Amino acid sequence: MASKQVPKQVEQAPPGLRHIAVVMDGNGRWAQRRLLPRTAGHKYGVDALKSVVRGCIAQGVPFLTVFAFSSENWNRPADEVSALMDLFVQALRRETRELAAQGVRLRFVGERSAFDTPMRELMQQAEDLSAANTRLVLNVAINYGGRWDLVQAMQALQASGEPISEESLAQHLCLADVPAPDLLIRTGGERRISNFLLWQIAYTEFYFTDILWPDFDEKSLALAMADYAQRERRFGTVHPQAPGLRVA
Ligand code: FPP
Questions:
Q1: Is 75 one of the annotated active-site residues of the chain?
Q2: Closest among 156, 181, 148, 161 to 23, alpha carbons compared
Q3: Which portions of this protein are annotated as coiled-coil regions (predicted)?
């Protein structure tokens, strides 16, 4: 964890916390510790995600973006990739209606052409069914990579003929219409970004925890938010009370 003190849980999201991004890591280790196949960890990971969705809704966070499958995850053993694809299909079949009923808008970001037709149809159906919901936007990054996102944005920008600027490039990224993440949580003990939202995290606060993803829940989320509430975000400026800034 980033802070030395253990913060108290919060009942409501700290002011200004609008977008949480999550690297859901540790499913495989969670399963292996229980002598279960790694894929069992991914299955329990779906429950952890549902718990975090409930937490975001309860605490009034309007945007949640989770890293479900990276561009590099295709390099995992074929049976794990295939089990993950089956799990995505099952999870979408089982959970879409319930999520939509909770007011969640589902969106998928990433290169979809790599998925088979049933999976692509399920993603489209989930987006269509939940399109009018406004309580929580859940962006599922799937076959996503931050580098891929930047390249596809640059290609779109080049094709449009617009001049290159930070603003014009940002408008072609997958999450162009979503505020940049305020808080990025990574579970599972690793302290890296792993090609997640490279552009969007320029001023994001990071929270790393050793908790393995299937054990992460609403309470863990509340602790992460409480830790975030203690941060001072300066966006490249100085603290308002910094010496030399006082005018009186
Ligand atoms: C990383 O843990 C986790 C994944 C690659 C998959 C995450 C997917 C889910 C939680 C399911 C979400 C489902 C939907 C429909 C969005 P790991 O396998 O790298 O764990 P390890 O580091 O312990 O090996």
A1: no
A2: 181
A3: none
